[in-house]
Design goal:
heterodimer; A: alpha/beta; B: about 80 residues; 5 strands; elongated
């Protein structure tokens, strides 16, 4: 049934594109920001920017959790790996640059670094190899954090602990909304983060910042409809919070996931690569789960790292201030094979997505 | 194996056992996923992220979305571009 739905119907896409041109303003520029790597993928892969009026821009915000993970947290994982702890992580994290090395570099030096599909697989490995110490580098936004909470509450084996690096998206959106030089007009809110947190955390954007905010799905027509809904709100002068992705996003979100996250984590100020410290934006384990905190268990703590390598402009790409093609390193010194900045590493990273499409065009 | 961090893929629930489910991602790709976070029934579609079902896909809402899209597209004037 689901497969037969028309979320990629070219005819529907043409018609919604026409509507976008009807409601777009005749003058001035509209800047819509999304904060999800998968949105960027859909927009770039399907060439949706080419369908929009020339004065409607869709820019990519900090929607790639791997890209915003600070070098200090990669450094901690690399240090543990080099000390003989088995470090498990998502595939996207493997090549993210630390201050001096990535986890892949540590692996090349003989460390045991393993890629897993999810935290559950890492726990299984630890159960099978009780003689070794395992750490999971838990990167990801609210979409991923509940899975970490599930495993912590399931009481993983004694040889397992976490470097919790989860971050939450709404505080980063507030930071962007307040940046006057970005002058954003609307948010395309992330579909899968919203599956967990629901719509309430975004109410502030239309109410306080006067910005239309639409939670959108990831099919091309979802994104086009999201853009249309934002433009329509702007034309009518009534900024609201709307849900385009009702097939999986409920207004209240996933209550069970929210409860589990609250049981396990508290929010603390967190450093975001390229953005600096954002208050109440990072999850930390509650004291009662301190036994699973790899920082305490293995005595590792790196306060500061080198987030941006010389010449890299990831910090401007990550807030949509410049396009990847405006960075002098893009596809010259910095390529998917040899990334300089974190945005070129993850398949969620704006530079990586643009690199893939520019390669396809050739 | 690479995963995109915010990517989640719909899959059909084939069987359920405690907090685990066997799901079908289509074209015969079967995998066990954790269903602690959802109340899914056999035959329903769940959205899977990194081995965990994070929501049940609402088929009625999916159809309603398509219906609404068509309605909006039919009722409002078209531009000449």
């Amino acid at each position: 049934m689901i497969e037969k739905l028309r979320f990629r119907d070219p005819e529907l896409a043409k018609r919604v594109t026409k509507k976008i041109h009807v409601v777009a303003p005749e003058e001035g520029v509209v800047k819509i920001c999304h904060v999800c790597g998968t949105h960027e993928w859909t927009i770039t892969h399907f060439g949706l920017r080419n369908l929009l009026p020339s004065n409607v821009e869709v820019i990519a915000g900090p929607g790639c959790p791997v890209c915003v993970t600070p070098a200090s947290e990669i450094d901690e994982a690399a240090q543990l790996a080099l000390k003989g702890v088995v470090v498990t992580c998502f595939g996207d994290v493997l090549r993210v640059p630390g201050s001096e090395m990535s986890l892949l570099d540590a692996k090349a030096k003989g460390a045991d670094v393993r890629v897993v599909y999810g935290v559950g697989d890492a726990v299984k490995m630890a159960q099978k190899e009780p003689e070794k110490d395992f750490v999971f580098l838990a990167v990801g936004f609210e979409t991923t954090a509940p899975s970490t909470a599930v495993e912590i509450l399931n009481k993983p084996p004694k040889n397992f602990s976490f470097l919790v690096s989860h971050r939450v998206i709404p505080p980063a959106m507030k930071l962007l909304a307040g940046m006057e030089d970005l002058s954003l007009n609307g948010f395309l809110a992330p579909g899968h983060v919203s599956t967990i947190i629901g719509l309430t955390p975004y109410e502030v954007f239309p109410k306080v910042y006067g910005m239309p905010t639409v939670v959108a799905g990831f099919e091309p027509i979802d994104v086009l409809f999201g853009v249309y809904m934002i433009l329509k709100q702007l034309r009518e002068g009534k900024p609201q919070l709307e849900n385009e992705y009702a097939r999986v996003v409920r207004w209240e979100g996933n209550r069970k996931a929210q409860e589990l996250m609250q049981q396990v984590f508290s929010l603390v100020d967190g450093s975001w690569r390229g953005l600096g410290v954002i208050s109440s934006s990072k999850f930390m384990l509650h004291n009662e789960y301190a036994a699973y905190d790899a920082h305490l268990k293995h005595g590792v703590k790196v306060e500061r790292g080198v987030d941006i390598q010389h010449g890299c402009r990831c910090h401007e790409v990550i807030i949509g201030k410049i396009k990847p093609t405006e960075c002098p390193l893009f596809m010259k010194a910095c390529t998917p094979q040899k990334p300089v900045g974190a945005c070129m590493v993850s398949s969620d990273g704006t530079c990586r997505i643009w690199a893939k499409v520019s390669t396809l065009k050739k | 194996m690479l995963i995109v961090m915010c990517l989640a893929i719909p899959a059909k629930v084939i069987s359920l056992k405690e907090d685990k489910a066997q799901v079908d991602f289509g074209e015969g790709v079967l995998r066990e996923v954790n269903v602690t976070l959802v109340n899914a029934k056999v035959g329903e579609y769940v959205l899977v992220h990194a081995g965990y079902a994070i929501q049940v896909v609402d088929e009625k809402e999916a159809l309603e979305t398509i219906r609404l899209w068509n309605e909006i597209l039919q009722t409002e004037p078209e531009a000449n571009i």
